[in-house]
């Protein structure tokens, strides 16, 4: 752990003079600590993170992205322990905050479009330029991380809610789902946690942050993560319009593959985020995640009720539909309101 004074001293060593202002930012879902340092009119982000492997992945991707002139922060200084660094300040407001305030305003629609265009540029520009052996936890979104995401959902939502299921049937379906998803095309650099909370907006420009968990994976995964995020709750009309906009960057053959992978990416992303909401919300009682549980369940239940792909996985489908019962809703409310 680091204190404010030590972080400020490191920042001032970078500046070569005293800081005009220095403050700590509230922590969110991450263990990282972020500070904002000011020198005259210029602001910088100072980050402390004890997870050195995560840091090295972030440094690696940041260097590549900077060389490619992508819309990501530059790293200006790293301490010798590699756990404290100064990075570019790209704005005070996340796209999530703007969406919460403005809904589907014209400005929001333009920022969403720009986000998808910048995502496509990142995916295209980084092709054949990434050494995936330098990634943080996984080189590729294959059976290992996919099965992990499925178990995350089972362990931290389904088992916490004590829902009944046939264990071997469900686990066999998990293996089938992993096999389907790891073969989806086209494959690109997948940021993994690509959502409006991890996108900064400054004027009419957007910038991507928190990409340290990036790996090789289906191009559609990040698109789904962004457009179908529970908290943003975009209208079906906007989601369809923006999917068409993203597809317009591809030729017909690639577009066909993207459309084929869309539903499987929706399934695994909805499952993964519900596992996170279970762990961060029902277990750790973090307000942001608690607030998203209902919409996260709605997204997954709507998928189970309307998409033919889920019919291959009977045990999983039945389990998902149980999430929509009054009994489960009441149980979630009791867990959320329970005080030790």
What does this structure look like?
With 340 residues, this protein is of the alpha+beta class. It has 2 domains: 4-88, Phosphorylase Kinase, domain 1, CATH 3.30.200; 93-337, Aminoglycoside 3'-phosphotransferase, Chain: A, domain 2 (Alpha-Beta Complex). The chain contains 12 helices and 10 strands. The chain has helices at residues 4-15, 52-67, 95-102, 106-125, 143-158, 167-182, 219-227, 236-247, 252-283, 287-306, 314-322, 326-337; strands at residues 21-24, 33-39, 42-48, 75-78, 84-88, 93-94, 187-190, 199-202, 205-208, 215-218.
- Helix fraction, binned, reads 40-55%
Give the CA-based shape: globular
Q: From the helix content, strand content and strand pairing, which structural class follows? A: alpha+beta
How many independent structural domains? 2
Biggest sheet statistics: 5 strands, antiparallel
Give me the secondary-structure topology.
Blueprint: H1 4-15, E1 21-24, E2 33-39, E3 42-48, H2 52-67, E4 75-78, E5 84-88, E6 93-94, H3 95-102, H4 106-125, H5 143-158, H6 167-182, E7 187-190, E8 199-202, E9 205-208, E10 215-218, H7 219-227, H8 236-247, H9 252-283, H10 287-306, H11 314-322, H12 326-337
Antiparallel strand pairs: 1-2, 2-3, 3-5, 4-5, 6-8, 7-10, 8-9
Helix pairs in contact: 4-8, 5-6, 5-9, 7-9, 9-10
